[in-house]
């Protein structure tokens, strides 16, 4: 697997729910290209500031379910995900256009995780991947 190391690349841009969910990433994904892309984005995020956006973000660009800049994971997925993004931003007290460090986001996630878990994790298709994360398990037990 190749990882990027160029600090001159632009700051990663994240949508609401990715700001929370990616803290539990454990190397799983749709395919090898997606996994490599996601791993590289997280390396960049940990090195500096990230930006907050609405809609598809830098993670979505390699997702096989992205169609015309909308999520096509299932019927009405884009609407559901935008609601989830809005809830994430509200819980984290962030807004599109903001710039923040990944570490600051991590601290915010720790504070709001119980609410997020109750609202979204239990019905998420990725829950089995997140449950493999020590960080996820630690926050569940708090």
| Record field, number of beta strands | 5
Strand portion: 5-15%
Determine the structural class based on helices, strands and strand pairing: mainly alpha
> What's the average pLDDT?
91
Strand order within the widest beta sheet: 1-2-5
As a whole number of angstroms, the C-alpha radius of gyration is 14 Å
State the separation between the terminal residues, measured CA to CA: 35 Å
The main pleated sheet reads as: 3 strands, mixed
Label the overall shape. Answer: globular
Helix count from the secondary structure assignment: 6
What is the string of SSEs from the N terminus onward?
A: EHHEEEHEHHH
The percent of residues in helical segments reads 40-55%
Poorly predicted sequence stretches spanning 5 or more consecutive residues = 1-5
Give the quaternary arrangement of the chains: single chain
């Amino acid at each position: 697997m190749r990882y990027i190391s160029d600090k001159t690349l632009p700051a990663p841009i994240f949508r609401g729910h990715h700001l929370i969910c990616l803290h539990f990433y454990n190397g799983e994904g749709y395919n090898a290209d997606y996994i490599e892309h996601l791993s590289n984005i997280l390396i960049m995020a940990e090195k500096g500031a990230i930006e907050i956006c609405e809609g598809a973000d830098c993670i979505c660009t390699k997702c096989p379910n992205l169609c015309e800049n909308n999520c096509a994971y299932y019927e009405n997925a884009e609407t559901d995900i935008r609601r989830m993004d809005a809830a994430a931003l509200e819980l984290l007290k962030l807004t599109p256009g903001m710039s923040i460090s990944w570490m600051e986001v991590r601290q915010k996630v720790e504070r709001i995780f119980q609410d997020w878990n109750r609202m979204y994790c239990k019905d998420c298709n990725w829950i089995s991947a997140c449950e493999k994360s020590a960080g996820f398990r630690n926050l569940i037990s708090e």
